[in-house]
Records
---
Amino acid sequence: MKVKVNGIELELAPGTSAIDAVFAAGSDVPYFCSHEYMSPVGSCRMCLAKIGAPRKDRATGNWVLDEETGEPQIFWFPNPMATCTTAIMEGMVIETEAEEAVKAQRGMVEMTLINHPLDCPICDKGGACELQDRAYEYGEGISRFEFDKRHQEKHHQLSELITLDRERCIHCKRCIRFFEEVPGDEVLDFIERGGHTYIATVEEGLESNFTGNITDLCPVGALLDRTSRFKGRNWEYEHTITSSLDDASGSAIVLDSRTGRLERIKAELNTQVNKLWIDDSTRFGYEYVNSSERIKTPLIRKGDNLEAASWQEVSEFIADKLAKLAQKEAAIVLRADSTLEEGYAAKNLAKILETGQIDHYPRQLASVIPNNSASLNDLASSDAIFVIGDVSQNVPIVDLRIKDALKGVAPPEMFEHGVPIADLRLKERMIRKKEILTVAAPYNVDLMRHAGQAHIYEANSEEAIFKALTKIANGEDSSVAAMSNEQAEALVKRLNEANNAIIIYDGFSLASPAAAIAARNFANAVGAKEIILGQMANSYGLEAIQVLPSHERYGYAEIMQGSAKALIISELNPANNSQYAQNLKELELLVVHSIFENETTALADVVLPAKSGYEKQGTIVNLEGRLLEVNAAPIDAGQAQDFEFLAASIIAALGKEGKEDLASLAHKAIRKQFGVDSKKLDPEGDLKPLKPRANNKAKLHIQSTNIGNALIVPTMLRLEYIDKNPHLLAERGAAKLTMNSIDADANGLKNAEIVSLDVAGIKRSFSVQIKDSVPAGLWLIPALPEQAIGLLELDRASLKKELEPA
Amino acid sequence: MDNITSRHDPRFEVTMYKYMGVENSHKLDFYEQHGGYQTAKKALTTMQSVDIVNEVKASGLRGRGGAGFPMGVKWSFMPPVDGRQRFIVCNADESEPGSTKDRFVLEDDPHQLIEGMIIAGYAIQATLGVIYIRGEYHLGYTRLYDAINEARAKGYLGKNVLASNFDFDLILHRGAGAYICGEESALMNSFEGYRANPRLKPPFPAQAGVYGFPTSVNNVTSIASGVHIIAKGADWFKSMGTQDSSGFHHVQISGPAVRRGVYEVPMGITYREIIFDLAGGVTEPVKAFIPGGSSCPMFPFTDEYLDLTMEYGVVAKAGSMMGTGGIILIPEDKCIVDALANVVHFYAHESCGKCTPCREGVSTWLPKMYAKLLAGLGESGDLELLEDVSHNIRGRSFCPLADACIMPVQASIKHFRHEYEYIIEHGKSMYAKKSRWQE
Ligand SMILES: Cc1cc2nc3c(=O)[nH]c(=O)nc-3n(C[C@H](O)[C@H](O)[C@H](O)COP(=O)(O)O)c2cc1C
Ligand code: SF4
Ligand code: SF4
Ligand code: FES
C-alpha cells in the first residue's frame, strides 16, 4: 500500500500501523503506551498526527478527485489521530509535523507531566527515560499547571524484586498488558479511576516467573529493579550485550556495570530467541558475582591451609604433578555452561595429557541434540505442540514462545526500524488457542494452566508414553498412561495434521536413552520437529564438540568414584556428596576452578579463581543449535580466569606450547564443526543445528533409577548461587521440598518448615512445600548442577527437622 | 420528576409510555391484559429475523442512547450466523445527568423491555440477552428481576419461546456506579468482570463483543421502540417525526420548568413547544438550555434556539447534540462558572483513567481550575489557559467521555464569556445564588 508520511512516499504491507509507517519513513512521533510485541491500546494519546486519506465514490468506485489538481482528494480526519491504533489505507497521508499535530503533541506532553513528580535527579530511570526524552523533544519546556500534584505512595514494594513509585506512573498500561499478554499471568491491574488511578496487585506479590520485564518496559521510573535501586546513574553504566548462561535459551541480555561491579541486568532484543523478555532468574540471579566471598587469587595447599599464590606458581605445581602421571590417569570435568572455547581448551589439555577422562556436567544419558530441530520462531508459529516435562522451570523462554503460538500470531516481519511498534494483529485478552497445546509431566507443572490437555503421569513412564503414542500413530492399538484413548488419538491426529508440529522434552526423557529414542521415534512418526531442553546454557554445544569421555568407564560419575588419579574440575562441587568427597581425598592432584569456596575447594590441592558467565568471552550453542556470542563485562573479579586461560597456563607450564594458541585452535575448530566464524557471529546468533551422533560413547549416569520415591526436578533458579543472590532469595525463598499432604502428614511436616535431607549422598536443606497436585509418594527436589534431573530412591529416614515454620 | 404529563397531550398518542405511573403496570398480568407479548409472538411465529431487521431499518429508528446510530443498520452489521453464541445487550446504565427516560421503562414497564429484548434477540439470532442496569436503579432492578422471573415462568423466556423453536434467555447485570459503564465497550468489559475501560474499536461489538462473540448493544428505549415498530409497522413509526429523525422520543426536562418530567413526543417538535407547551414554561428567568443531557453543548435561551426542531441533524448543525433528549434549563441567576464546575466535577469523577487527556486534563486539571475561579483566585490569563487546555483535550481522547466534558465547557465560554471574565476580575461570581444542593 502506498502511503505518504511528511511528504515521503513509501510502500508498506496492508495491516501496518500508521506509527510504523511514520518510523519506516524515517520520521519520529512520540509514544508511551505502544510497545514492541504487545497490543496497541491507544491510551497515552501521545502519538498524534494529522491523518487523511482519499475516498472512493460509492457509486462509481473511482477516487474522488481534487478539482484543482486532478489528484485524489485527501479527506482529513477532523481530529489528530493516534497513529498506533490506525491502520494504513491506500493513499493515506500522515503528517506528524503539521501545526495541529505538533500542538496536540505538546498539549499531551504537558498533560502527561502534570501529575508526574519530575524527581529525575533521584530516579533510577533518569538518563534512560522515555518520558524525559519525549518531554524534552516534544514538550513546551514549561508547565502551566500551577496546582498540587497528586500524591501517592512512592515506595510501594510490589515484591522483593520490584518497587513501584506510584507518583511516577503515567498509566501507559504496559506493565499490566505485559502480564496478561506475554506470560498470561494476570497479576497487576489499575485500581480506582480517573486521576486517582494507580497500579496494584490483586493479591500480595507478583506470581510470575517473568516479573522483571516490567522494569524494562515501564517508560518512566515507576517500576524499578530492587537489586539495582540507587546503585548508579544510567550514564555511568557500561553496557555489555551478551548471551545469558542462566539456561539453555542463550537469551540476550545487557550487563550494566559500574566501578567493577555488575549492578543490573536488562533484557536485550533477540528477535529469534527471547524477543525482549527474560525470566527472573536470568535477570535477578547475578548478585553473587559481586560477593566479597569470591575467590580472587589462585590458592595452593600448604598443609591444612590454602594460601594465595600466582597463576604461574600454581601452574608449575600442577604441571609437575601431571607430568608424573601415566596416560589416562588425569581427568577433566567442565560445567555444562562452559563456552565452546573452554570446551576445546579442555579437549586440547586432555589430548596433551593423553586421557579420555573428560566430561561436562550436568549431563544425561541421552543426547540433547535433536534429530529434526525446531527453532524458537518455529515454535512461536507452531499449530500443534506436545510438551512432556517442565518447560517453565527448565527454560522459561520456551514457555513464553509456546504462549506466542497460542495467540496464533506468527513472529512479525521486521521493519528497518526494527520490531513493529504497534503490531495491529495483537490485541488485549486475545482468545488463546489452548487446544494446540498438550502438556504431560509427572507432576503439575505451570504450563498446564495454558494447555488444552494436561496429563500427570507416573514418574519415569516417558518411554512407555512415547512408545504407546507411536503405536497409535502407526495405526496400532495402544493405551497411553494418564490419557484416555480419545485424548491420545486426538493428540496424535492433531500432531499428524499440523503444518508445524513440535515435540518438546527435557531431562525426564533424557534420563533414559530408551525414552529419548522413543521420543525421537514418535516425533518421526507424526512428522514433528523437536526441541530438547538441555539442563544448562551450553549443554548442546559441549555435546556437539564432544567434551565427552572416550569410554563409558570415564564419565563424570566414574571419575567421582575414583577412575582417575588427578582431577581438574571447573565450577562444580562434587564433594557436596559425602561419598564422592571420600574418593576425591584419595586423588594425587585435585585442581578446582571455582568462583566460591565449597566442600570441593576444601579438599583441593590447588584452587583457581573462576570467571562467572558475565566475565567470559566466548561462544555457546543454545537449544536450537544457535551459536551465540558471550561477552565480558568489566567486572572486578581479581585474578579470576576462564578455563581456556587455565588450560593454556598448564600447557605452557608443561612445556607443551604448540604453534597456535588455544583461542585460534578453538576459532578454527568452531569453523570446521559449525561452519561459522565465531568472531563474526550475527548479533542474533547463527542457527547451525547439527545431527546427533549415532554413537555416543558417553552413557554414564548413576543416579537415575527406574524406580524411586523422589524426583530431581528442573528449577529456573541456580540454587548453587541463591544464598548470594539476596533479593532473589528473599522473593523465592529457600529450595523447596515439595510433597503431597499425605506424605507431609505421614512425616509430621508443615508448610514452610525447614528440613534437611540426604539426597543420594548430598546433604541438603529445604523448606517444605505441600501441594496436593504432586502425586502421593513422590517427593520433588530441585536440581543442583551436580545432580541431573531424574528419579531416585531417597532415604527418607535421613529427614531431619531443622526449624519450625514461623 | 414531579409529573409525567405527556400522556395528557392531546396532539399525540403515547405508546411506549402509555402505562407509566399506572398501578401495577410492572406486573405480568397487567402487561398481558394490555396486549403484552403479542408482538413477540407475531415476530417469532410469523416473521423471519431478516424481516424484523428490515422493518426496523425501514422505520429509521435512531439509537436513543446518545449517538443516534440507526438501530436496524446496526443489527444488519451482525455477521452471518455461524454457530457461535451471539448476544443482544440492552444498555440500561442511564447515568448522563439530565437523563431519566430509561428509568421509567425499567420501573414501570419492565415487561415491555423484555418483550423488546426477545424481538431484538430473534432479529439478530442471539439466544442470550444481557440487560446491564445502572447500580443505583434499585427499584428498576428489583422490578426487572421479578419480571424476568415471571416471564420465564410463563415461557416467554427459556427454551422454545412462545412455541417458536427459538431459545432466548436474559441475564440481568447490575453496574456498580460508574458512568463509563454506559459506553458500550466499557459496559461489556464490566459485564465480563473486567475493569470498565472502553475497548479499542475496531473490532466493533458486532465483530467481537461480549466474550469476543458477535453482539449488538442498544439502549432501553431503542429496544422498547422495536416492540411498537413491529406491532404497528415502520410506516406508522415514520408517520411521526421527520425525514432525518423519525418516530417518537422521550424528552426529559429538569431545572426551573413548571412541569418537570419525561414526555413522549414526536421528533421534530420545537424546543419551545416542549418547554412552554408541555412543561408549562419556566418558573424563573432562564438563560440557557442544554438540549440532550449534560454532555451536550448548551444553547442560549433565545428564540433562535428555542425554535429549533428536535432533530438529530438540526441540533448538530446548531452546534450541539440530541444526546439522550435530557433538557436542562439553567436559571438566569445561576453563575455559569459554578454550573460548569458542577458538570466538570461530574466528568472528573467519572473519568475511567485510561487515557491521558481525560485522566490528567478532565479529571485532574479542569476541576482545579474551576475551584480556583470559584474561590475567587482567578487571574488574568486563566480563561485563555482554560480554553487552550480544553482545546488540547478535545478530540484527542480515547472515548467520547472527555469531549462530553469539554464541549459544555467550551459552549459555556462561547455564550457566557462575560461571566468568566467577571469572576476573574472581581474574585466573585456575577450571581450570588447557590445551587439548591449547595445550600
Ligand atoms: C461516556 C459514555 C456514556 C454512555 N452512556 C450511555 C448510557 O448510559 N446509556 C446508553 O444507552 N448509552 C450510553 N452511551 C452510548 C453507548 O456507547 C452506545 O452508543 C449505546 O448504548 C448504543 O445504543 P443505541 O444505539 O440504542 O443508542 C454512552 C456513551 C459514552 C461514550
Ligand atoms: S507503572 Fe510504568 S509501565 Fe505500568 S502503567 Fe505506570 S508507567 Fe506504565
Ligand atoms: S476519555 Fe479516556 S479516560 Fe476518559 S473515560 Fe474515555 S477512555 Fe477513559
Ligand atoms: S496512544 Fe499511546 S502510543 Fe499511540
---
Amino acid sequence: MSGETNKAAAAAGVNVIDCRGLACPQPVIMTKRALEAAGSGSVAVIVDNPTARENVAKFARAGGHAVEIAPAGEGLFRLTITKGAGAAAAPPGAAPGRPAGSPAAPAGSAAASVSGPAAVYLISQETLGAGSPELGAVLMKSLLFTLLESDAPPRAIIFINGGVKLAVKGSPVLEHLRGLAARGVNILACGTCLDYFQLKDQLAVGTVSNMYAITAELAAGAPVVAL
Amino acid sequence: MRRLRLPSDPRLVVGPATADDAAVWRLDNGMALVQTVDFFTPIVDDPYLFGQIAAANSLSDIYAMGAKPLLALNIVAFPLCSLGVDVLAAILQGGADKVAEAGAVVAGGHSVDDPEPKYGLAVTGMAAADRVLANAGARPGDALVLTKPLGTGILATAARAEMFLAGVAAAEASMAALNRAAAEVMAGFSVHACTDITGFGFLGHAREMAAASGVSLEIQSQAVPLLPEAAEAAAMGLVPAGAYANREFLQGAVFFAPEVPENLRDLLFDPQTSGGLLLAVDETAAADLVAALRAAGVAAAAIVGRVSGQGKGEISVR
C-alpha cells in the first residue's frame, strides 16, 4: 500500500518522507529537515500514528505551510505539505515558530534594489550605543525612524533581552515599529525575554518568537546588524 | 485497581477509591501516616539531575496531602554492567540531596538489574489527622490556585529535538524544585483540597479533584502559568503522545470555549513530571495565598479558575 503511495508520489516529483515506526519528535524533525531542503513545492510525510499526524500538521501550519491529511490505509496517514501556502496568520494566541510569509522572500529580492540585500537587525537593548542612556534613547528612536523612512527597509527586526521593551505598550518607538511592520518588516520579540520581564501580555507590535525562529532568521543569509 | 479485591480498614482514611496522591493511615495519637511511591525512567540526560527530579516528584505526593516527609526508600532498576556505578551513584546522590533539602532522610532502598534504568522513592510522611488534605473537599465558590508552570512534557519533547533549549532549562529547574515551600505556605490558609499535577496533566488531575469532590470547575486558560517557550514548542508540534492520551481520556469531561487556542489546550493536557500543586481554597483567601506563595519563592503561583458548582467533575475551559 505505502509502496504504491510512494511510487505515485515519486512520479509526481514530490519528496516523500517515511516516518513509519518513528516516535515523537522524530517525525517533526524529519519534516523540518525536508522542508528546509525543499526549495519550494510540496513534501509528503507518511506517519503511522495519530500523535505524529497531529504534530507534523501543527509544525507545518506553524511555518505557514498548507497541509492536507489523507488516510493511507492500515493506520497510515499521508500529509501533503505545500510550502508557504498556509493561512496568513496562525490561530489566535498560538505562537508561530516562524511567522507566515517571513522566510519566503530570499534575501536580496524585492527590497534589495537600492542598497544590497535587506538586513536583519538584532536589537538587544533599549538604547543605542554606550555613554549616555538618555542620548541612547534618542538615537534608538532616530534609528528606527530612519529605517521606517528608508527606501530599503530591513527584512526583519529581532528584539532580545532588554530590547523587547521597545515593542511593548508605552514604548516611545511603537509607531515607528508599527509602520515598519506595515511595510512588511518581520518583527520578532524573544518570548523568553518577554517572560523574564513579565511583559508577554504587553507586546504591542510583532510576534512572540523563540530562539529557533530567531536563529533561523539570523542564519537565513541576510546581513545581520547587531545593536 | 478496580479489578482487585482489597481489604478495607477504618484506619485507612484515604485509600485507592478516590485516585489520590498518597495513602493516609490514622494513628492513635491524632496523627496520620502518609505513604506514597513513585518511580520512572530517565527524562533528562544528566544522572544527578534525574535523581533530583525523581525525588522531588516522589516527595510531591507527600506535600500534596499537606504532610511533612520523614523517611524515604530508594527504588532502583539499573543496568550496572552497561552504564556503570558512577552513573548510579550520581542518580542516588541527586535523590539523597533532594530528600535532605526536604528535611527527610534516605533510610535505604532496593535495587534490581534491569536494561532500562528507573528510579524513584517510597516516601513516608506525617500530618495531624485533621489537617490531611485530600483531592476530595473542593467546595463551590473556591478559587483554584496552581503553583508551578505547565509544559514539562512538551519541553522534554523539545529537548529530544534539541530545540527551545532556554525553555528546556527552565523545565528542568522547575521539575527539580520541591513543592515544600508551597505546602508550608498553604498550611496557613483555609485550603479545602489539594493534588499535585503529574502524568495526567493539569486537566486530568483537576478532573480527579473535581470528581472526588462532586463539583464542576471553570478554568481561565489565559491565567494558567506556562514555562518559557512551552507555547511555541506546542504550536510547533512538539507534543508528547501522553498529552493526546490525556485528551482522549478526558473526552466528554472537558469543554473548551472556541477561542482557546490549540497550543494552550495541548499544554493543559500535557503530562507533567514533578508538577506543581493544585489547591482549592476559600475564595476570600485566594489572593492572599498567591501573594504569600510568591513571597516564599513560588514565583509562578496564580489563580487559574474556580469551583463553579456542584457536579460530577465537569470542567469548562475559557
---
Amino acid sequence: MKKYIRFIIVLVATALVMGACDKDWLDPAPENQLVTSDSTFADPANATRFVNACYANLLTWEQSAFSWMGVASITSDDADKGSDPGDLGADKDQMDAITYTPTTISVTEVWKGNFQGVSNCNQALANVPKFDIPQDLKNRLMAEAKFLRAYYYFNLVRTYGAVPVLDQVIDADNPADINKANTRVPVEEVYAFIEQNLNEAIAVLPVSYPAPELGRATKGAAIALLAKVSMYQKKWQQAFDLTNQIINYEVGNYGLVPDYATIWREVGENSIEALFEIQARAGIPIAAVQQYCSPQGIRGGKFSFVGNNGRDTSAFTGWGFNTPSLDLFNSYEPGDLRRKATIMSIGDTLFDNVIIDTAANPRYNYKAYVSKYEESWTGNDDRTNKNVRLLRMGEIYLINAEAANELGNTAKAIASLNAVRNRAGLGDTQAAGHEELRQAIWRERRFELAMEYDRFYDLVRQGRAGQVLRAHGKNFVDGKNELFPIPQSEIYASGGKLTQNPGY
Amino acid sequence: MKSKLLLLLMLIAGFTSAWAQQKTVTGTVTDNADGTTLPGVNVLIQGTFTGTVTDVNGFYTIQAAPDDVLEFSFIGYEKQEQLVGSQSVINVALSPVTTFLDEVIVVGYGQLLKSQVVGAITKVDGGKIAREPVLTAAQALQGKSAGVQVISTGKPGDQPQVRVRGITSVTADGNPIYVVDGMITTDITNINNSDIQSMEVLKDAASQAIYGSRAGNGVILITTKSGKAGKMKVNFDSYVGFRQMTNKVKMADANLYANYTNEARAYDGQNPLFDPDTLKYNTDWFDEVSRSGLMNNYNLSISGGSDKITYYFSAGYFVDNGIIEGNDYSRYVFRLANDFKPADFIKLGYNLNINVSKNDNKPNVFDDAYRMAPTAPVQYPNGDWGYLQALSVANPVAQLHYTNDIFKQQRLLGNVYAELKPVDGLTLRSSFNFDRYNNDGTNYLPEYFIWSGQKNDISDLTISTGKGFYWIFDNNVNYTKTFALRHQINVTAGYSAEQDKYSSLYGNVKDVPDQSNLWYIGQGDLTTATSGSSGNLYTRAAVYGRATYTFSSRYTLSGSLRRDGSSNFPVNEKWGTFWSAGATWIVTQESFMENQTFFDEIKLRGSYGKIGQDNIRNLGVLTGVTILSNYYAFGGQSGTPQQAITFDQIKDAQATWEPTTGYDIGLEFLILNRRLRGDIGYYNKLSNNYVSITLPSAVGDADRTVFSQAADVRNKGVEIALNWNDKIADDFTYFVGGNITFNNNNVESVDGNLQLRGGSLGNGEIVTYTVEGEPIGSFWVYQTEGIYRTQEEIDATPHFTGTKPGDLIYADVNGDGTLSELDRVFAGSYQPKFYYGISAGINWKQLDFSVDCYGNGGNKVYNGKKGLRFGNDNIEEERAANRWSPDNPNGTEPRASNSIPKPSTYFVESGSFFRINNVTLGYTLPLTKWKMNSLRFYVTAQNPVIFTNYSGFTPELPGSNTSSGIELNIYPVTSAYLFGINVQF
C-alpha cells in the first residue's frame, strides 16, 4: 500500500492542477457599466433617456456656470468681475477688461460645453430610430433633440462665428468625419442649419406636455428661439410673424406676469412668462445646474432679519462674482421697478425679510439669489433649485417691437414696447420716429433682460459694442472682439486645421 | 487520454528508485579553514526533502541508503556532496567562501546560481533593509541598488515612487511591481521590513520576461523569512524617536509682508491693505501647523522547526506620527509561515501576512501655510479663527482642527502551496496566492463659519468601504539535471490564472452631530442622503517557460518565453508574447585564467528581450453607454428627475500591450583577494507607449482623450556598483560600497500632431512639453534675462502688455519682435542624469557604525509654488527683501506684484542633491551572561542632512510621468532621530 501512496497523491495532485480552462476567462462582463448590446436597445424607455442627455448637458459646469458667466455677462457693461480685487476667478479679470486670449479658460469651456451638447443631440438623433416605439413618440423625441441642437449652435455662432457644423455622430476612426469636425463653416450656413433644425422641430413639437414632462421643448419654445435667431440675422418679417404667433396665443397661453420681481424667484418657475427654462431641482438625485448661483452669491456678507434687531442671520452667500455695475444701477429710469428686482445693494431688505448689513461688494445679482427661508433649500449651495430662464415673454415682446419698428409698423412697435414698460411700472414711451424708437427699444432690452446673460451679444448684434464698452473702460477692439477666439487647445487637437479668428 | 497514459508511465518509471535497505549514517561537520565544528549545517538526502541538521557539536545522524547522496550545505560555505556507499560514518570539512558566483539568486518562479543568471539582477540582503527605520522596503532600497531611483515622500503611511532604469511609459504608472512570495502587488506598506529575507531587483528584459505582462517598469522580488530546522530563534527589535522637518523655507514676516502687499496693490491701483506700523500679529504658520512627530516600532519574531515542520511567527507594531498636527499612522503586522513535510517527496506550506492599519488623515496644509498672511493670527483673543478677506486662503490650523478623516485597512496577503518531488530533479509546485483587503473610511466635516470664504454651512458625513480580492493560481514544473557531469539543464514551465476584483460603497448624509460616536448615516437628515457604489474586475491568464543550459559550470545559455492574456484589451488584442534570450561566461573558469591571482571571479553577461505592460486600464470595453451623473428635473417641483444616457467615450480599437524591448550587457567580478566585488552594466531599451491624444470637443468624447500608441521612449545607461569588504584585525572589519547609474531618457518619436503638454500649474499655465529629442516631461518655459529697471528698457525690447520696471525680462528667442509660445525654450527635465548611493561602515569589537547616502545629479525642478499667486499671498523672505522698487533700484528680485507670472527659467532650479540617508551607531553587549545570543543598542538618524541648491522644500517631487519635478504641493522632507534595541535569543 505504501508503495502506491506516492503514486496516488501525485496523480490526484496532477489532476487537480490541470484544472478546467474557461474559454471566457478573459471576457468578464465589465462591472458597473452598461454595454452596447441588445439590452440597451431592448428597453424602450432608453429612447427617451438618450434625448434627456441633450437637456442634461445644460446642467454642466462648462455649459451654464462660471465660464458662461465670464463670456456672456462679465464682458458687458451690465456687470463687473466682482469679488475681492485680488481674486481673479482664474480669468474673470480678463473677461471684464476684454483682454482674454485663446488660452483663456472661459473661452475654452464654453466651446466644450456647447459641442458636448451638440454631440449628445447627434447621439440621440442617431439612436432613437433604433428603438421599437411608436413613430409619433420617435418624431417628438427627435424634434426635441433638434431644438436643443439649434440652441447649442446659436450659442456657438454668436460666440465664435464660423464653427464646424456637425449634423450627425462623428466616427473618430473615419478621416472624413474628423475633417468635418475641423472645418469651419461660414456664419450664414450655420444660421441656415439652425433655422432648418428649428423649422423641423416646430412642425412636430406639441404645444404643451402632460405635467410629469413639464420642461421639455414646446412648439412655443422653438418658435421663440427661431424669432430670436431671426432677429440676429435681421430677418425682421420672419421675427415679427413668429413673435406675433406667440403673443396672439396661437401656440399656447403665454403672457407677461404682472410682478416682474417674481420672474426669477421660485414662485415664478415655469409661469406663463416662460417659454424655455433650464429645469433645476435641488436634492437627490443631482438634477440642478452646477454652481450657477453660488459664484454670484453675496460675498463676505453679514445679515440680519426684519424684526430681529440686528441679530446675526444667515443667508445665501457665495463667491461674489458678476456684480451689477454702477453704470447699470444709475441708468434705470426713475420709477423703474426692475432696478430693485435685479440688483440687491447693501442695506436692502430682500423679499424674504433678510437685510444685507455688509458685504464685500456694493451690489449683487438679485436674479441669482436663493432664499433659505422661503424657497426650497437643501443646504447645498452648489446645486440650487433655481431654474435658468432662457426664453421668456418679456424678450418676445421686445423682439416683436424691434421687428415691427424695422418694418415701419410704428404702432405695433410702440404697443409691444409699452406692454413691457408698463409691467415695469413705467409710463408709455415718449419716443417717436424710426431712429428714436430703435434706441428706446434697445435701451428697454437692457433693463428688461439685465443680468440675464444677453447684453454682450445684444450690443454686438446692434453694432455698437465697441462704442458702448470702450466708454465703459473696456479694451474692446473693433473687428476683433465681436467674436471670441477659437480655443487654442482645440486648434492643437485639430492639428492646426481649425483657423483662428482675426486679431487673436 | 493518450497524454494522460504517457504521464502515468513516466511517473511509474520515475519510481524505480532503489528501495533498498536503509542504515544509520553519522558524522561530524567541520570548518575546513580552522577545524571548528559547525552546528546548524543542513544535511539533505539529494533529490528528497529528507534531511537533518548538525547539532551544537557539529554532529548529525541520518537514515540513508547506500545509493543516496548526502548534500552538506551551509551559508558561507561551499556545498559538498558525499555518496553514502558502504560508509556509516561520514565526516565532512566545508570550505568557507565569500559567496559570489555560487550565491543563490531568486529569479522568477525559481532560483538559480549567480553564475547562471543571464539578466541584470541586484540582490539586497534583508538585513540592510531592516536596518532603515522606514515604513516600506521600497524606501529602504534607496541608494542600495544601481539602476533604482527612489523618490521619497514625507507623508506617513505612503509608499515612495520607484523608477527602475528610467521612465518607460508616458501615461501609465511608472512604478515596478513587487512580487511578495509569489503574490504580485503594487502596495507593500503591509510588509514588515524585519520579515524580509532578501530583495531582488529584476532590471532587464531577460530577468523580467518571465513576468512578461506586468514587468514593463521592472520587478522587485521580495522573499520573506521562513523557519529553519533547528533550535527556536527569538528576535526582538524596537526603536523609538521623533521626526521633524529637515529644513523650511523662510517666509516674510508680518512687517515685510505688509509692505510688499501694499506695494503690489499700488501697482494695480488698489488701496493699501495694511498699516505696517500698527500690526498686531506676526504668525509663523509653518510652526503653527507642524510638530515633532513620534515614531516607534516593536517587532518580535519566533522561528524554528524540526525536520518535518518549520515555523515562523512575527508580530510588529509601528507608529508614525507625521509632522502635521494630528496626522497619525499606525500599523500592526502579523506573519505566520509554516511548512510541513508529511512524506519525503511532498511539502506543504503557507504564508500569511495580516496587516491592520489606521491612518488619521489631515489635508496637506503646507500649501496654505506657505501662502497665508503672517498678519493674521491663528485665533483672535475671543476665539475666532484668523483670516484675511482679501486673500482666498483657508486658515490652515482651523482646517486641521475641523478635519476628521479616518481610514482603516485590514489586509491579508499570502499563499498556500504544495510541492512534489516525484522523481529526482523534478519539482511540481502548485500555489494559490491571494491579496485580500477591506477598507473603511469615515470623513466628517462639522458645521463651522470662519468667514464666507471658509465655512461649512451644514455638517457632512461620508462613510465609505471598499474591498478587493486579488488571487493568482499558479502551477509550475521545475526540472534540474546534470548529464555527464558537464551539462546542466534547468527547465521551468508553468501557467497561471489571475483575477483582481474590487468594489467600493459610500454613503453621505448631512446634518450629523459633532460627536464621533454618532457618525452614522441614520443620525443625519435622511432626505439629504446619497450613496453610490462602483467596482472593477480584471482577469489574466498566462503560460510561461524558461530553459537554462550550463556547460561545464562556465557557459550558460538561457531563454524564456511567456504568453499573456489580459481582459483589459479589446477582443483580438488580448494576448501578447514576451520573450528573452541571454548568455553568461564565467571567465575565471577558463584554463587561461588559472595562473593569475588578480581576478578571483569574473562573469560576463548579455541578454536581449521583450516585455510588456497592461497598465492602461479599461480599454477592454469599446463603447459603453454612459449614464450621465446629471438627471433632468422634468415635471417641476412635484415631478421626478429623469435619467439621461448617451455615448461619450471613444476607445482605441487597437489598444493592446505597451511593449519594451531592450538589451543588457554586464561584467560582474570579484578581485583583490575577494575583497572588491563589482558589477558594471550597460543597458538600452525602447518602449512603445500609449499617450492620450486630445480629441477636438466636436467629436463629443466627454474627457476629450483617447489612448493610442503614439510615442516611443528610449532609456539607455550605465550602472556601476562596487563593494569593498576588508578587515584590519580579527575584530575590526569595514566596508565601503557605492553604486552610480547614468541614465539618458529620450523621446524617440511622437506621432504627428500630438501636443504632449503637461505640468499644469492649476492657473492655466503649463510647464512641460514632451517632444522628440528631449526627456519625458522636459520643462518648456520662457527664458529670463534679469529684470527691467527703467521704462526705456521695457520699450526697447519685446514685452508682454502691462510690463513695468521691476518685472522679469523674457527673451525673444526667435527674434520675431513679439513674445509668444514660440519663444519658450527647453530648460532641462526632472529625469536625473545620474543618481548614486554610497554606504560605508565599521565593525570594531562591540561597536558598529554605518552611513548610507543617496544623491541625484543633473536634474532640474520647477519651483511652482513660488509662482502661484492668487493675490495678496505671503512671499518668500528672500524675494521680498531683495525686490526691486523705486526705492531699491538695485534689487535683484522682481518687483512686488499680485499678478500671475509666466512660466520661466526663473522658477527652474537645479534639483541635484546629496543626502545622508542614515547614520547608525550601535553597541553589542558581550554575551557572557543571560541566555541571549546578542543584545545590541543603537542610535540612528534618518535623513539628518541634505545638501542641495534648491530653495524650496524638497528636491524629491513625485508626480505623473509628464509632470514630475514640480513643487506645487509642498510636503517637506523629514528627519528622524531614534534610539533602538535589538535582542536575539
